[in-house]
Design a protein that fits this description.
alpha/beta; Arc Repressor Mutant, subunit A; ten-stranded mixed sheet; two-stranded antiparallel ribbon
Length: 298
């Protein structure tokens, strides 16, 4: 609880992240103060901040929690049986195309393993949920990560390539299979907002092609984006995962100078030896191959 307050900044936010009431968190932190004989929090206006003693305890909390997780992993490894529950974060596009075969394969190969999922559209919030222990793992999408970063392992899975999506009856790329992004400089776009990572990635690709996209509709949902394009309201740039369920009235074209996002599975280094986590990594790698995705080697 002390670590959560340190990371989230308020008792209320820590309570929300942990699933407790603010009063329960306050009572537990008071117990720490009684046991140690020092104050771990101090009031700053309406908020609280950690004292020097509190910050020292957080350092040790990270060590203790990591060692407890390693102990749990050791016990599970000795049992040589994949069982239990793994809590996994993922985005809408992963849930749409990747999750169903992952769950089917998991149920077939590891019947005693339960996979629970939660949508985390922001890569940063998903990684932080893994770091805090709210999640066991999270599928993240980015250009690339270091293999291990601040105690988090980023397991590379596959490249997710973007495609040009246009209305079927439009003249954009008619009779062709490929277009240069620069040819869309005068087009009206349906795109993810700039505030989300994929939106910024697309804007960067357009800038590299020599233009800033004219956006008519900002939609952070690929099925909705495809429906709007099919209605003739613009063109879009959508990754392969987002093309899982295509309505009628679309044409898909390759990009002459292609760009992609990478999909990685983030999990704590301290949980790497857990059979349930290694099983999840193996399942994700196998599903990526079975779906014919551009698999990355770790």
């Amino acid at each position: 609880m002390l670590r959560e307050v340190s990371e989230r900044g308020t008792i209320a936010a820590a309570a929300d992240g942990l699933g407790y009431t603010p009063s329960a968190v306050s009572q537990q932190l008071s117990s720490i103060e009684k046991a140690t004989g020092v104050s771990v929090l101090e009031r700053v206006g309406r908020n609280v901040q950690l004292t020097d003693a509190g910050r020292e305890l957080v350092v040790h909390a990270d060590i203790v929690l990591a060692e407890l997780e390693r102990a749990r992993a050791s016990i599970e490894r000795v049992q040589e049986h994949v069982a239990g529950t793994v809590r996994v974060g993922l985005s809408e596009s992963m849930a749409s195309r990747f999750l169903p075969p992952l769950l089917r394969k998991g149920a077939s190969e590891y019947p005693d393993l339960t996979i629970r999922t939660e949508e985390f559209p922001s890569e940063l919030s998903g990684v932080e949920a893994v770091r805090s222990g709210q999640l066991d793992a999270c599928f993240v999408m980015a250009s690339s990560h270091a293999p291990v970063q601040d105690g988090i392992i980023f397991e590379p899975l596959f490249r997710d390539w973007f495609r040009i999506v246009v209305p079927a009856d439009s003249d954009w790329g008619r009779g062709r299979e490929e277009m240069h992004l620069s040819e869309l400089a005068d087009a009206t776009f349906v795109l993810a907002p700039f505030r989300v990572w994929c939106g910024r990635l697309i804007h960067g690709a357009c800038q590299n092609a020599g233009f800033s996209p004219t956006i008519a509709h900002e939609i952070d949902d690929y099925p909705a984006t495809l429906n709007v394009v099919a209605a003739g309201a613009g063109v879009s740039l959508v990754p392969d995962l987002g093309l899982a369920h295509q309505p009628g009235g679309l044409r898909i074209l390759d990009i002459a100078s292609p760009f992609c996002r990478t999909v990685e599975l983030a999990y704590r280094e301290s949980s790497a030896a857990r059979p349930a986590v290694t099983a999840l990594v193996d399942l994700a790698a196998d599903v990526a191959k079975e779906l014919g995705l551009d698999v990355l080697e770790g």
